[in-house]
Amino acid sequence: MILLDFEEQIGELLEQLEKLREVEATAEIDMTGSISEIEEKIKKKRKEIYSNLTPWQRVQVSRHPERPYTLSYIEAITGGDFIELHGDRHVKDDKAMITGFGTIDGKTVMFIGQQKGANTKMRSYRNFGMANPEGYRKALRAMKLAEKFNKPIVTFLDTPGAACGLEAEERGQGEAIARNIFEMLNLKVPVICIVIGEGASGGALGIGVGDRVLMLENTWYSVISPESCSSILWRSWDFKVQAADALNLTAENMYDQKLIDRIIDEPLGGAHTNPEKTFETVKNVIIEELEKLGKLDPVKRMELRRDKFLNMGVYNEG
Amino acid sequence: MAEENLGWFTRTEKGISTQTKDKKDIKERMWYKCPKCSEVVTNQDHEDNLGVCKCGHHDRISTKRYFEIIFDDNKYKELDRNITSADPLNFKDRKNYSERLVGMTKKTGLKDAITTAVGKVGGYALVIASMNFEFIGGSMGAVVGEKIVRAGDYALKNKIPFMIVSKSGGARMMEAALSLMQLAKTSAKLNQLSEAKVPYISLCLDPTTGGTTASFAMLGDVIIAEPGALIGFAGPRVIKETIGRDLPEGFQRSEFLLEHGFLDYIVERKNLKEKLAQQLRMFAN
User: Where are the domains of chain B?
Assistant: First the structure.
C-alpha cells in the first residue's frame, strides 16, 4: 500500500506487522497476540490521523494512486452486468468519459463518469480523467438515451478538470459543458451525482447537476484546484495548503454550505484501504436514493432539481 | 573631437521624426493609443467612435456606455440595484475578499460585476444583464448569478426578450464552489425562459472565458459577438502552458468561433443597436 506523507507513523507499524508475520511463518511460532496488538495500534493510529485530516490532506487522499475509479465502482455495483456505450456520434469516443447501461438490484441504470487510469500507460490513455467536448457530448447522448427509456442516471465525478487544449477549444469545450448543465436541469428521470475523487470546476459540473449530489468523505469539489488557485491568487505554486483551506472544498464544507445533499462514509483510512466495502456502501446509498426519487412525479422532480440550484447563493441585499 | 566620429549621434533629419503613434509615452486622460495598430486619437474622438479604432479594434467600454448605445434615447430602468456580495467563506488570499470588494466599489463606482436593466431597443422591449469587467475581472459570484436569475424572472413575467452581455474571466474564486454553482443556477433560469419561449440572446464581448462560456454565454437562442473578442473555455495562457507552444493567430477570437460554428454572427459596435432591433423584430413578428 502506498502511504501518504502524513501517514508515516502507520508505515512504521505496518513494517512491524510485516516482520511479525514473517517470523510467524518461518519460525512457526504463534504470534497471534502480538499481531492483533499491532493491528489494533494501526487502527488506532489511522483513526487518530483520519479524524483530523486537513483540507489539503483530503485532497491528497482523493488523489491517492490506489483509489478506485469509475469503472471499478460500476463493475462492483452491477456485479459485472454492464454494457459500455461508446462515442458521441459526432467526432470520436472519449476515453476519459465512461457511459453505459448497468444493472443494480435487477433494475437498469445509466452509468456515466470520468475515468482515470491506474498506471502510466492507462493514465495517458484516459487523459488523466480530463474529458474533451466529445466526452461531455457522449455523456449527454447517454443521458438522453436513459430519459427516452425511462432509466435513472447515476454519474461518478472524478476529474482534475475538463481537457484544455487547441482541439478542446475548436470543438467548443465551453458549449459542451454549458449544454450538459442546461440539459441535466431538464431531465425527467432521476439523476444522482456522486463525487468519488476530484470534483474540479466546470469539468465536474458538466456531469454534476442532479436531484441528489453526494460526496464521498475524502473527496473535494470546487471552482478550481488548490494548486491553480494558489498560482492565480498568490502568484506562486507554494500556497496550495492555504488555498485548500480558503476554498472550503471538503465534503463537510460543501454540505455545510448546502451545495451537496449528503456525505458518504469511507472505510477508515480512505476508500483505497477497503474498496469492496466502499462499493457496497455506495451501492446501498444509490439504491436508497433511487427508491426515494422514484416516488416523485417526473415533472415535480425536475422542478425541485431546478429550485435547488436556483437557491444556491449567499449575498447581501438592501 | 572631429564631427565625423560622432556620426551615430548626428541627426539625419531636422525636427522630431518620431511619429506620435510610435511614441512610447502618451499622456493619460487625453489620448487613446490603440494597442493593435498604435494609432493615437484624443479620448473624445475615441469615445465618439464608441471605443472603436479606425483599424477595427473594439476597445472595452463600460456597461453604462453600452446601455447608452443600445437603449432608445438612453432611457432604461435599472433592476435590483441593491444586491451586493457577501463574504460567506471569509475568504483570504494575499488580501481579504471583503476588503477587495470595498476597494473595487470605491474604484469603479459599481456594486458588483453585473448591472441589469430593462428598456427599449428600436421600439422593442429588452431586458439586459450586462457584466462589468472592471469589477474583479467581471468574475461571476453569487451576485452575478442572483441578478441574472432576477432579470430572467422579469423577462419571464413580462414576456420580454432577455439578453446577457458577457464580459468576464469566469467564476469568482473567492466564492469557491458557491460561484461554480452559479453556472447551474443561471442555466436553470434559462431553462424556464426556453420553456416559456422567451427569446434569449447571448452577446459575447472581450473577454468571455471560463465559467461564463461554460454556461449562459453558450446557451443563447442566438449567440453573437463583437469582432476580435476573446471567447473560450480555458484562457490562452493556460492552453499555451499546457501544450507548450504558441497559439495560432486569431485562436479563440470571435472570427475563429464563427468559423467553428459556435457563433451565429459577429456584429460591429456601430451596428449593434440596429442589429438587435432587427433581431428582436424577427422574434416578435
Answer: 1-30, 56-284
